[in-house]
Design a protein that fits this description.
Elements: H1 12-29, E1 44-49, H2 55-66, E2 70-75, H3 87-96, E3 101-106, H4 111-121, H5 123-126, E4 131-137, H6 143-157, E5 164-168, H7 175-186, E6 190-194, E7 210-212, E8 224-227, H8 243-250, H9 254-259, E9 265-267, H10 280-283, H11 290-309
Parallel strand pairs: 1-2, 1-3, 3-4, 5-6, 5-8, 6-7, 8-9
Helix pairs in contact: 1-6, 1-11, 2-11, 6-7, 6-11
EC number: 2.1.3.2
Catalytic activity: carbamoyl phosphate + L-aspartate = N-carbamoyl-L-aspartate + phosphate + H(+)
Binding site for carbamoyl phosphate: 55-56, 105, 142, 145, 270-271
């Protein structure tokens, strides 16, 4: 694996290998007073975020540090991007400084793929064989989020294959939804997207999933339900009448959570809008795996860095 840009780059065997590596790394850290592994000592990992982030940026930084890599955070607000430097020149500069891996989040769909193409083409000029990891590009994909969600489902349900997973809410603007649909389908899950017609993207009928507009009709059949964040910052129009109407139509309330099977798991990629997307009592309930997603995010991102930088077999 040279780069991680899309979940469609992973077949079932490759995705399972990453998840298995994450499990082994988690076990390797258990009981350690100092959570450090020497696996990536001497490697340099740079996070380059053009959008705000807490979970993804920090968990990549923690993942790198727990594996003894030198980790550096670059924010667009405090870099030469504010002076007009292009994405390509910023990436080339970081590669020339010796970055072994650049983890990028960018508001433009396809930005990570463009960076990977530049990194491969300009390898001789920079003197570094730099790996690129997509940490979210526009409304396109967020592959490590899908991997950590799959890891969480494996922990709570035992397996992903054969499970029915519901993804509810703002699918139109969600790179998390797209990555989850394709990865979970690759791993053998039956995925149903539940959203109003205004919040479904063009071409969603070609995705490997089923489409529904009625959340209450789906709940009793689900092994897990993921509520999505309503991405108001990406909306340029009225996609639903009001926050209250959205909560009534698609929010995961106490009553809706009670309709789920006893074993069903509740997920949310965060940050949550409590009371609109999900009731606070549901988010904090025993069936909620939201904090487990955050914990698994560190181990999954450790596994990604390991496979990219430590020479793990594909």
């Amino acid at each position: 694996m040279k780069h991680l840009l899309s979940v469609t780059d992973l077949d079932a065997a490759a995705a399972t290998a990453l998840l298995d590596t994450a499990d082994r790394l988690k076990q390797a850290l258990l009981g350690r007073e100092v959570r450090k592994l020497p696996t990536l000592r001497g490697r340099t990992v740079i996070t380059m975020f053009y959008e705000d982030s807490t979970r993804t940026r920090v968990s990549f930084e923690v993942a790198g540090k727990w594996m003894s890599a030198d980790t550096v955070n670059v924010s667009a607000k405090g870099s030469s991007v504010g002076k007009g430097e292009s994405l390509r020149d910023t990436a080339l500069t970081l590669a020339a400084m010796g970055a072994d891996c650049v983890i990028v989040r960018h508001p433009a769909s396809g930005a990570a793929h463009r960076l990977a193409a530049w990194a491969d083409r300009d390898r001789a000029a920079t003197g570094t064989d730099t790996c690129i990891v997509n940490a979210g590009d526009g409304t396109h994909e967020h592959p490590t989020q899908a991997l950590l969600d799959a890891a969480t489902l494996r922990d709570r349900l035992g397996s992903v294959a054969g499970r029915r997973i519901g993804i509810v809410g703002d699918v139109l603007h969600s790179r998390v939804a797209r990555s989850n649909v394709f990865l979970l389908a690759t791993l053998g899950a039956d995925v149903v997207l539940v959203a109003p017609p205004t919040l479904l993207p063009v071409g969603v009928q070609q995705w490997p999933c089923r489409i529904s507009h009625e959340i209450d009709a789906e709940l009793s059949t689900l092994d897990a339900v993921m509520t999505l964040r309503v991405q108001a910052e990406r909306m340029r129009g009225a996609f639903f009448p009001s926050a209250r109407e959205y909560a009534i139509g698609y929010g995961l309330s106490d009553e809706r959570a009670a309709a789920l099977p006893q074993h069903a798991v509740v997920l949310h990629p965060g940050p949550m809008v409590r009371g609109m997307e999900i009731a606070p009592s549901v988010a904090d309930s025993a069936r909620s795996a939201i904090l487990a997603q955050v914990r698994n995010g560190v181990h999954v991102r450790m596994a990604v860095l390991y496979h990219l930088l430590a020479g793990a077999p594909e």
